[in-house]
Design a protein that fits this description.
Ferredoxin Thioredoxin Reductase; 2 strands; about 110 residues; two-stranded antiparallel ribbon; 5 helices; mainly alpha
Length: about 110
């Protein structure tokens, strides 16, 4: 019997799509890369019980990781400066409309 607390790939797609729609954001335009991000979020949810950013190392302690629970607290500042979040999952409409693919940006999370 499947664990009802685990998320599937499709569950995670629904989650990130809902967030993007609510915030008027776009998802990463390259399906292959988007799938990697979705897999990472799904794995982190099933490991920790929350959607920890797939591009950062989570501690597995919700209180310590609260700043990197998707969408993380660095998402909007990154979007304001670069047009997309650290992992490139969420893009602003303006950045999306350029047709440019998200690239790496500096890490804002304190060490």
């Amino acid at each position: 019997m499947p664990d009802i607390h685990n998320k599937t790939f499709d569950d995670t797609i629904k989650f990130v799509t809902m967030v993007a729609q609510k915030k008027n954001w776009y998802l990463h335009p390259e399906k292959e890369f988007l799938d990697i991000l979705i897999e990472g979020l799904t794995t982190n949810y099933n490991r920790y019980g929350y959607f920890a950013c797939p591009c950062r190392d989570a501690d597995g302690i919700r209180e310590k990781d609260k700043d990197i629970i998707c969408p993380c607290e660095y998402c909007v500042p990154d979007q304001e400066e670069y047009g997309h979040c650290y992992c490139g999952l969420y893009l602003t409409p303006e950045f999306h409309n350029t047709g440019i693919s998200p690239d790496s940006i500096p890490e804002r999370r304190p060490e």
